[in-house]
Design goal:
elongated, alpha+beta, four-stranded antiparallel β-sheet
Amino acid sequence: MQPKQDRLKKIRDIIASNKVNNQDSILEKLAEEGYVITQATLSRDLKILKVSKTPDGVGGYHYVLPEMRLISDLMTNHAVAFGSDTVSGVKSIEFSGQMCVLKTNPGYANMIGSLVDNALSHKLMGTIAGDDTLLLIMRVRTDVNDILADLETILPGISARRI
């Protein structure tokens, strides 16, 4: 049996990398990785990790890590504070190889960079932020579509801004 910390890390990775909406999906993915546990153990692990469910925007729910929830809440609060035109503060997103450039409203790049860096550190080497431009440097073998899906969880509607 793998140590508990390894299992908790694997659960974090599964939730960060996939839009899972039920515990059975997590249990299946854990089993594929050699972690066979009960639903009760998974429930305890999710509580330890402070995982919650959040609306997925299409009438359902999916699991999110605390930092992903924080990002979503902060972006929503920012949108309210600055008006509905700012939704997430991102004007456009463009990919080139292992790099991604986000054009933001003035003053947003640093905040968004910090939030994205924390939430996607397992897929990003880092971010570099200016005032209205954010550079994401992806790890080797990180798929653009995976990054975009992860960003969509953090910044709802970002896919529609892809150039």
